[in-house]
Amino acid sequence: MVETNQTVIKYFILFAFADLHLLQNLLVFVFLLTYITCIMGNMAIIVIIRIEPSLHTVMYFFISVFSFLEIIAVTITVPKLLANLISGNDIISFNQCFTQMYVFISSGATECYLLLVMVFDRHLAINNPLRYSTIMTPTFCISLAISPWIIGFSICLVPVIFTACLEFCGPNVIDHFFCDLTPLQNLACSDPFISNTATILATAINVELPFIIIIGLYIFIIRTVSKIKSKEGKQKAFSTCLSHLIVAILFFGTGTIVYGNPMGSRYDKYLAFMYTVFTPTSNPFIYTFRNRDVKKAFRNSLNHIIKPNGM
In terms of C-beta density within 10 A (0-12 exposed, 13-18 middle, 19 or more buried), how is residue 259 classed? Predict the structure, then answer.
């Protein structure tokens, strides 16, 4: 991002959790552990889906893309936080701050639309099983996987540009552990009304609209699943839907609370922990590792590693 002529500030200070100085060692341990768990868990999902033929389906293709997005989201924020907690490196330049913010909120918006795509896939599979294979062609699947990236990164550019055009003349301490829209807008010396409005509109388009559509699709899915006579088939369908719904509620709920309030609150950075660290770390376990097919594929992969070539 390019600084405007009105901006005096050349860098920002990330306050992070400096007020919890007695818990610094514990915070380092917690964030490092969750970061490693998140990376390893999501990487494991991508690798297993890639090497296991039984998981070469549309649903698991979207899950692997979602896992890749989770890795991006935590990597853009947590390493800087760890550097802050361990070495006290709490300074971030103006350009680095806005780059971090843009990539993070764009990846978050992309996840919102990808979650919608994943529900749409399940909706087709459950409500239109006979037409599913003709609709979900490889070309269409790739288009569905790419579209959330284009939408998310395009729409999020608007509030970021409006925020970057604000006048920043001091103070420069951000009460957060990463650069986010609301904390930065609250530091501006000029009127942030336009950037606040752009943030609210972007939140409505990127978070609330997909969530409303997801709820609507789930109503149709639940109505269809409730009519399934087979107890095992009904249980399997509900299990898949429940996992996705838990992830969606965690992600959309915290995102709406934080970005729907232009004034922000002192608790935003703690809520941000939910969708920046906790949710990406828990998703592999909620989404796939409790899934029978993934467990079977994971065991097969371990067997191939332990006993290569059938030895």
Answer: buried
